[in-house]
Amino acid sequence: MWLIDVSRQLPEAHLHGLDYNLRQAPHQTWLPPNIYMKCLNIFEDMPDDPIGKYDCVHTRLLLLVVQEKDSRPIIQNLHRLLKPGGYLQWDELDTVNALIKKVNPDQQTLALDQLREWSRADSQHDWTVQFADFCIEEGFIDAKIDFFEDGNELARAFNDQHLLITEEFAQSLGELGHSKLAAKYLSLVEEAYDESVAGGALCVPRVVCVARKPL
């Protein structure tokens, strides 16, 4: 969606969508003519073709694929993709500051509380709030980080999205043979949904970091 929005604003720009797997991407013929989809694995050494090619690199939601709490290898490869003076923008979930919103402060939200703790993953994702520092360490300048919280009008919609993600995770556990754990999470999702109907919502803010590659 980000590329499609940009293609409308900058119809003369060449826009590349990069991912290691394009099976979920729209067919090329359905995309605007200035968008091109290409396979690229950000965890591997960069091929020569894209190095130093881009004025701006935008990435988002790599939280679950960052290994060993360390985003630096990805930052290094994103740095290589940029031209001198180019900008990086990384949008990510801020599980550190996840919270439960309630219409009634006295409402019990035991299931939503458990999902909030699960999303924090024993502090494995705390790197997201330190992202600007990591960018500076890897050679970027002018790194700035901003935090965005869901408005009340969108709290329920994003809450349901989080529940769907948890449900998909539970189904994956079942397919891997972890039937008891899968059943536990599916039950938790059902309970959390009931709490949502009553006026609770799991809110996971967004963190956006912008940094520039030196000239």
Keywords:
215 residues, alpha/beta, Rossmann fold, 4-stranded mixed beta sheet, two-stranded parallel sheet, globular
Can you walk me through this structure?
InterPro entries: SAM-dependent_MTases_sf (IPR029063). This is Methyltransferase domain-containing protein. It comes from Conoideocrella luteorostrata. The protein has 215 residues and is α/β, with parallel strands linked by helices. It has a single domain, classed as Rossmann fold, CATH 3.40.50. It has helices at residues 2-9, 72-81, 110-120, 131-137, 152-175, 179-197; strands at residues 15-19, 35-39, 54-60, 82-93, 99-102, 141-148, 200-203, 206-212. The strands form 3 sheets. Strands 3-4-8-6 form a 4-stranded mixed β-sheet. Strands 1-2 form a two-stranded parallel sheet. Strands 5-7 form a two-stranded antiparallel ribbon. Helix 5 (152-175) packs antiparallel against helix 6 (179-197). It starts with a helix and ends with a strand. The relative contact order is 0.16. The mean pLDDT is 93.
